[in-house]
Amino acid sequence: MPTRTARTAWNGTLKEGSGQVELSSSKIGTYEVSFPKRAAEEAGGTTSPEELIAAAHSACFAMALSNEIGKAGGTPNALDITADVTLGQKDGASAITKIALTVRGEVDGLDAAGFEKAAQAAKAGCPVSKALAGVDEITLDASLEQ
Question: CATH classification of 49-144 is 3.30.300.20, yes or no?
């Protein structure tokens, strides 16, 4: 199985410093990071570990759901997945406190109950979901749209 690599170069203290995250394996980009913008409501042109986790989770979930729909006898025409990753406080320290997955799907061959079952299976089976099992709350809102 493949290994994927990202690299971060950081300069300075936590509060005044900043860094650049490089997606090394794909070579598709280098992105700015800073703690003040990580902890702010507005990202201001920088990314964060939480946004990168959200990207990984939504992409992995989309693949897992597509697989589960196929196993259930359906055909996914379009899946729109959003992952909202919340940085909060737990036991006095910064922590990822919640992940909310939202999926809207256009699927042939499954009814709403079948789609929900496939979505729940994808949530349980997605490798990124498994890696994030330490997060206190991971919710799923799945809706079939025709």
Answer: yes
